[in-house]
Amino acid sequence: MLRKCDYYHYHQNLFQLMIAQIRKMTEADIKQGLRIVLNKIEEACSRRTPELQATNPQLVAVSKTKPVNLIVAAYEEGQRHFGENYVQELEEKANNSIILEKCSDIKWHFIGHLQSNKVNKVLCLPNIHMIQTVDSQKLAATLNKNWPKFRSSDAKLNIMIQVNTSEEEEKNGISPDQVCDMTKFVLNECSNLHLAGLMTIGRFGYDPTDGPNPDFVTLKRCRDDVCQSQGVDWKNIGLSMGMSDDFEHAVELGSTNVRVGSSIFGYRVKKK
Known about the structure:
Blueprint: H1 4-23, H2 27-46, E1 58-62, H3 68-76, E2 81-84, H4 87-94, H5 97-102, E3 107-110, H6 119-123, E4 128-134, H7 137-146, E5 157-162, H8 179-189, E6 193-199, H9 214-230, E7 238-240, H10 247-252, E8 257-260, H11 262-265
Parallel strand pairs: 1-2, 1-8, 2-3, 3-4, 4-5, 5-6, 6-7
């Protein structure tokens, strides 16, 4: 029978072993994980209804808390789109000399909560491609106003509107009934922004054997409402839905953008 102190040391050692295994992820592991995810996406696409099969989902590899060498490994395997949740971490990686040298065509997606007072820190970064988490008119207006300060060309900033489809208090995003007004504001008042689509984080732990994920169904309905009210072709409004636990189901339901981290890079150590 384990004594209390032995029990403590056993679990402490087990935790340290788990951390060591996470840190031991090699470049070969990353490349294999990436290939497995891409194959699963392809298989999920084959199960789509005919009208959805013409659209190929984009994979965003979520690299938060992961070291530079693993990002480079995924890039060398052909991955170009990467997602980060934290402004400071994205700043460090986007300006990293190794990434700038070896990953010249990398495309960064910001997928975390963005405060208006940190907008410039993100917009000034090299290879910033999209902000997926625009959740207020204030944030959209700030992005629209500040984007020209950092880009000399006429290229618009790609954005997605984050929708809190599950309406959980701890999640960011606008409610589904605000989507049409929000998209109207972006389309009519934000000439420096390109509305790439809608984004959601589905409720954790949903079992797809119970039927289509209601969060994904809601986001699709939001897109239908936007297209009808604004006269936009549905093919021009993407759907960013699906993460490591549910990306295959999301693809089957029509996701055009999946955000996958642990299935490629291994489980991460949560920040304290």
